[in-house]
Amino acid sequence: MPDHLRQRVETCYQQAEAFFQHRFPRPEISFRLRGQKAGVAHLTENKLRFNPQLYQANREDFLRQTVAHEVAHLIAHQMFGPRIAPHGEEWQLIMRGVYELPPNRCHSYEVQRRMQTRYIYRCACSEGGEFPFSSQRHRLVAQGRRYFCRRCKVTLSFTGEQRKE
After folding, report:
1. With contact defined as beta carbons under 8 Å apart, do 61 and 106 qualify?
2. Residue 22 pLDDT more than 80?
3. What is residue 30's three-state secondary structure?
4. pTM for the whole thing?
5. Which residue is catalytic, options 10, 70, 89, 100?
6. Homologous superfamily in CATH for domain 3-98
7. What residues form DSSP beta bridges with 157?
């Protein structure tokens, strides 16, 4: 876990404490998040998870905006309760009033999609075409699940062909 990130979380908490005149318990911080999300706040567990790949590629904005965004979720939950909207006026108040940042709901970081294998299935009719299955769906077929063509109602069968996308 980078020290810069941990320090930024602490700075955000100190700003919120000065603004609200209220002490907040510090969250557990994890650097184990993958995929398209830059960060996630687990409200009831008081936990923050951050995406290390997006942090590395967007360090400055990530520290300034993403960390404050996720901390604001925890602060809003602790100040206003569990029934508030995730990006509602309470959260926006914290983003604007405490952190002086725009209350952007989503990041605009470029996310690299990983290559996925598609398993090609076909049906009996010529109009059904091909059906690219994910690894998970292909595994379900191997376990006995059946999928049918909507046109001819025949069970789709694996062609043996695989593609990387």
Report:
1. no
2. yes
3. strand
4. 0.71
5. 70
6. Metalloproteases ("zincins"), catalytic domain (3.30.2010.10)
7. 122
